[in-house]
Amino acid sequence: IAILFLMPLLHTNQSQGLQFYPLNQILFWYMVITIILLTWIGARPVETPYILTGQILTVLYFSYYILNPIISKFWDNLLNN
């Protein structure tokens, strides 16, 4: 949860809305699905298939915070050129 406090610092977009960032729209829904699946997997018993699934979903969850600023910078550079 502490990583959520970093999100305002990572927001460096030149435009305000996601309508100007189509790749970030896809990334947003990727994040929503990941959170829903992590919530579901957290209610499952600690057994073999659920442990690996939880670990993979956790990597996907934290990769959002790495990919979001990178894609935003890429899209801003693409729009400015």
Structure description:
- The chain is mostly helical and 81 residues long.
- It has one domain (21-80).
- The chain is 72% helix and 0% strand.
- The chain contains three helices and no strands.
- The chain has helices spanning 7-10, 22-42, 48-80.
- Helix 2 packs antiparallel against helix 3 (48-80).
- The longest helix is centred in the C-terminal third of the chain and has 33 residues, at 48-80.
- The termini are far apart.
- It is a multi-pass membrane protein.
- The chain crosses the membrane at residues 27-43, 50-71.
- One of its GO terms (biological process) is electron transport chain.
- Pfam families: Cytochrom_B_C.
- Keywords: Electron transport, Heme, Iron, Membrane, Metal-binding, Mitochondrion, Mitochondrion inner membrane, Respiratory chain, Signal, Transmembrane, Transmembrane helix, Transport.
Would you spell out the secondary-structure blueprint of this structure?
Layout: H1 7-10, H2 22-42, H3 48-80
Helix pairs in contact: 2-3
Please give a handful of descriptors for the protein shown.
72% helix, elongated, 0% strand, 81 residues, 3 helices, mainly alpha
Overall geometry: elongated
Which range best describes the helical content: under 10%, 10-25%, 25-40%, 40-55%, 55-70% or over 70%?
over 70%
Radius of gyration: 15 Å
Element order: H for helix, E for strand: HHH
Kindly state the number of beta strands.
Answer: 0
Q: State the secondary-structure class.
A: mainly alpha
Give the strand content. under 5%
Overall pLDDT score? 86
Low-confidence stretches: none
Distance between the termini: 37 Å
Number of helical segments?
3
Largest sheet: none
Number of separate structural domains = 1
